[in-house]
Amino acid sequence: QKEVEQDPGPLSVPEGAIVSLNCTYSNSAFQYFMWYRQYSRKGPELLMYTYSSGNKEDGRFTAQVDKSSKYISLFIRDSQPSDSATYLCAMSPGGYNKLIFGAGTRLAVHP
Amino acid sequence: EPEVTQTPSHQVTQMGQEVILRCVPISNHLYFYWYRQILGQKVEFLVSFYNNEISEKSEIFDDQFSVERPDGSNFTLKIRSTKLEDSAMYFCASSEAVGSYGYTFGSGTRLTVV
Fold this sequence. Notes:
By secondary structure, chain A is mainly β. Chain A is built from no helices and 11 strands.
């Protein structure tokens, strides 16, 4: 079983739709959970980070962590064409340095 | 907004040659990292660096790789004898603290080994 699993998509939605992106993981030691956005040939850009379980909201973005199910989600409300990118989940045990990334989900928002 | 700067943006090198990838992390950050992403694959951890020494490294980071912080601002990744499979995007990142605040990544250096 892979440590972090993420459906690579692609996911195509109309402008204004609610987008749901998800990752599952197997390592129960993960404590820190992040979502990054990556445009083509660019570095990952941090969108959201959460510690342990719960929800976090920032503008149109909501991150959810369910540690009991080892499942994290990112919701994007009122999606815009500028949201078209690859979304990477990443997680860390905390106290360790490295992030473990998912494969990334490619999202296309069409006008 | 503070950013991590990487140079060059693209480097082409011949197999067996040495390359040095350069990074200027955010000035008040204490932890520095190198990650790489082979085309179409996941972002993979290579090495982390704190207090002028390596704090963790992956299996990928073998004897061909080294990192250095030669002065107060630069952070470099050296590949001694490049192989075709080293072709990838290499990302430098920095953070204020371990894990908890996410990392700021640079735009990457695309390394092509021919």
